[in-house]
């Protein structure tokens, strides 16, 4: 396979579309789990852009960042899902609009 | 010569006494406080006497500038101030007067203050006062003198307000301090101008440079301006017109304080300073005239107020102002020695008058009003006789101390090189009034029938610790003027001759400012006759006769006179409304500006407004911004997105600019 056939702009556009979808879902969705997934989507969109740049410039830096992002995302998923379960146990809901006690 | 080489000992002793009593005195019993306070003063007096004895044996060429430098206090560029003492004849006189009278007042206080709270505090302040006063008279430069000058003012404030639970005493203390401060404003500017002109603050350097200058013409030359400014300071310190108002109020302090600070020593600091600066004053004829004029006017003006006062201490206070006026009058006509002579005799007889008045007040159980007294002569004989002698002295009755000094002053004003008939007239009339109000005081207090309730007031003679100093001062009030006695029969005036080197060393050549011993011709008997029948003596006796007529012979006369002359009577009785005028012209506007401009506008409006405004802006901003934290996670998400978009746009823009 020759990756150079596909121009980098294709990857970047795909990355931007994925990031945009994730962002829209992040803002407009109500369920915490869905928002969580939107965040994951944005992270992976960024990962894609990193990988594409790394390949295009023939450098390893982007790949290293991707590994870090995956590790952090995994940790975040673990902690985040634990919080989600804990919230559900206490409030019997995952609707973000009803979880609004922490305010001025 | 141990003490002359170690002048600091004289000064350090009272400071040590003050420190011990002030820091530890609370736990001491009264005898210990006495031992420390009076002991320190006794040692200081003995050292001073020893220093004077050594001084008298010095060869003449080491005088007048025998100085001892202890350390350099300030050194900045050409401005150098050494902590330096000097001894000359003028210092010697002051040294003996200050330590001597202070010692007597300390002993007296042990009896007078025996039942007061804060006994140790009183002695601590008194010792501190003596420390500063000795600094003032021993200083060899203007700055060290100024330290003493301000220090005695501080002690005056502390001692006038000694009974600090009494509002009138507190405000009197503040009045004394602030009024003096107005004078010191001129004084400090004078010192600066002095340094600016002569590039030194040392007496010796200044005087030697001044010695090369000629007498300034009538007008505002540099020397004249310096002298006038220095005299402003002296007028504040020595309670001259128009800054005398603090001294009568200062009578709120304990009576020994009035005797020591407000009669014998501190208030004479101004006279001492003018006499010390004689090389400058003698070259500034306009300043000299102002000194003489203010002195004569004050002598006259204060004497008129003294005529109608009923508070025994207030009479003495106005009398002090009046006598200080005489001293300035003497300095103003160039008779510095006579001024210092009067300073010394005044320290004796006015110190005595105050201490005796204290003894009267003590006997009356605290009442100071003369209309409540009367007939005390036989009940407190020692107080009566000593006070009687002091009254003779101040009234200028021949033979007593005040006669010689006052006569010398009036003679210099009449016949001296700067003679002025009108000033002499003021002085003579004031002398008559002095005699009148002093004998009025004596007659009202000691003669006639008792006007107090004999069942309530138990009149008793004071203890020996109080009458002892009275007797010593009475002797001094009698013999203290005899230095000048030979002059009456054409002989030398020993006092003037003793001080002559101080005032002749840097005298300008043209004006013979310091008169030599009287060089009149005539037989001794004729001269004695003239001296004893001069106007000062005649008006003195007239005052005595008039007081006798008014207050012994026909006691109704004063009342009738007051009714027929109600206008002037009211004016004088209310002290010419000077306090009210000052209140209206200065204090009330100052208070108004302070309240409405400085307080309500500047402080509350501008300063507080700025501080509170800053806080209010932060609070208002916070109360609006906090609504951003709605608890709604989706709005946070929106803000994150908007922020991210903003940062992206910003970076793209910056990148574009860099490119």
Descriptive notes:
The complex is a heterodimer of chains A (104) and B (659). With 104 residues, chain A is mainly alpha-helical. Chain A contains three helices and no strands. Chain A has helices at residues 8-28, 32-57, 61-91. In chain A, helix 1 runs antiparallel to helix 2 (32-57) and helix 2 (32-57) runs antiparallel to helix 3. The relative contact order of chain A is 0.13. The model of chain A has no long low-confidence stretch (mean pLDDT 89). By secondary structure, chain B is mainly alpha-helical. Chain B is 71% helix and 3% strand. Chain B is built from 27 helices and two strands. A two-stranded antiparallel sheet of chain B has the order 1-2. In chain B, strand 1 and strand 2 form a beta hairpin. The longest helix of chain B has 48 residues, at 578-625. The chains are: A mainly alpha (104), B mainly alpha (659). At the A-B interface, helix 1 of A face helix 27 of B.
Summarize the structure.
Chain A is an all-alpha fold and 104 residues long. Chain A has three helices and no strands.
Count, helices of chain A: 3
Mean pLDDT of chain A: 89
Biggest chain pair contact, residues each? A-B, 14 and 11 residues
Q: Order the strands across the largest sheet of chain B as they lie in space.
A: 1-2
Which structural category do the helix and sheet elements of chain A fall into? mainly alpha
Q: Based on the structure, what is the oligomeric state of the protein chains? A: heterodimer
Low-confidence stretches of chain A: none
Q: Helix proportion of residues of chain A, in percent?
A: over 70%
